[in-house]
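One record is given unchanged without comment:
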Amino acid sequence: MRKKALLALEDGRVFQGTAFGHDGTTTGEVCFNTSMTGYQEILTDPSYRGQIVTMTYPQIGNYGITAEDSESAQPHVRGFVVGELCDVPSSWRSTQSLSDYLAEHKVLGIDDIDTRALTKHLRSAGAMRSCLTTELSEEEAVKAAKSSDSMLGADFVKEVTTDKTYHWDGESRPWTIPSVSQSIEGNYLPLSEAKYKIVAYDFGIKRNILRRLRQEGFDVTVVPATTSASDVLAMSPDGVFLSNGPGDPASLDYVHKEVRELIGRTPLFGICLGHQLLTHACGGKTYKLKFGHRGGNQPVQDLRTGKVEITAQNHGFATDGENLPPNTEVTHINLNDQTVEGTRSTKDPVFSVQHHPEAAPGPNDSKEFFVDFAKMIEGSR
């Protein structure tokens, strides 16, 4: 028999359910993700550090867990909320059930709750602090939620960044399906030549970002978030990449300073948190969104061409478009709420996007940004 569990929000609303995975008590900002698949990638995305994630798709766990699909070495969510847990996976690739995986990593899960009602509440009231527990009463859990740390001012980057510099040499070949008619043998396509030597700041970098960079001809050296600009420039890179990551971008003063020193001295490309850090480094501001953008169905328009792409996103903060730094223009907007989704410098070889061109999970409409980075480097030589 599985234990009873409850999810208590700081505004006093409580959802009753059933525990799976680990048990105990955890706190974090509760948010929701609208992706229909990709729960393993979501669990292991370092950008979710400090958060309890709710999946809006009703049944989760259908295809189990496969080691190859993890975006990092471990789950980073504080808790996992689903409507209905499928504990008998049906996939030839599966090596473990979702429940067993969370139990192994001591992550609390809860199902048998009305995730539709929870999502509608968060859309109306906003993402908020919460407590997921198998131990506390409703009153105690609400109190624990109210006393937990806020996402505003949070620096989780130091918890997820690499401890030391390393060269990415993981499996990066594009996966495919064997085809006799197309003369494709095996499940992998060959990699292109590595033409560009770049340094990637790890603020919580996903493995698929590293794969996509390598697929587009980048030789990638990954450095910790605290690496100085002078140390990066001493590596003589052709460009610098600023990764995704968790927490409040405004709290990362130590990163703003180093990124500021890189501008104009090497081509720069940032995504998600990296995009927001570029905003701060250039003198701009960010703010917290009411409930964030998390899922694989966000429409983004390129203002230069009018083209609309469906994108993968995971962020709770956004660039303030009303107070843009000098020599910066908005290139992309979110068509749902008109928030800034991309910027570029009109002076230096610098550009960034708020969404995730590497997806995992999500659509691949925006994968050409990695090609654009290569073109920018080539044009700067």
Notes: The chain has a mean pLDDT of 96.
